[in-house]
C-alpha cells in the first residue's frame, strides 16, 4: 500500500461522518478529466448508470474512496489526496448519499 493510499484511508476512517471534500470542486475535477467518457464505455449510453445500477459494487463511503483512488491511479489523473476527497464528496452528494 503506498503513502497516498494510506493517507486517504486514514482520512476516511478518522473523518467519521464528516466529509472533508467540496462537492462543487469534485464535479469540476471529474468533468475536467472526462470521467463520464470511460463510464459510458463501461455501461453504454448514460455513464451515470454506473452509480445507480442495482448491482453497483460501491456500498460504503470507504469503498467509494477506494474506487476513486483506483480510477485516479489507473488513469494517472494527477489528483492529490484532497482532490480525490472532493470527487468522493461530489459522487456521494450526487449519487450515493452515504452518511
SSE pattern: HHHHHH
Unreliable runs: 13-17
- Approximate shape: globular
Distance between the termini: 26 Å
As a percent range, the share of strand residues is under 5%
Counted by DSSP, the helix tally is 6
- Determine the structural class based on helices, strands and strand pairing: mainly alpha
Radius of gyration: 13 Å
Give the strand tally: 0
Which range best describes the helical content: under 10%, 10-25%, 25-40%, 40-55%, 55-70% or over 70%? 55-70%
Overall mean pLDDT: 85
Largest sheet: none
Detailed description of the structure:
This protein has 99 residues and is an all-alpha fold. About 5% of the residues have low confidence.
Outline of this structure?
66% of the residues lie in helices and 0% in strands. By secondary structure, it is an all-alpha fold.
List the helices and strands and how they pair.
Blueprint: H1 3-14, H2 23-32, H3 35-43, H4 49-52, H5 61-74, H6 81-96
Helix pairs in contact: 1-5, 1-6, 2-6, 5-6
Top keywords for this entry?
6 helices, 99 residues, 0% strand, globular, 66% helix
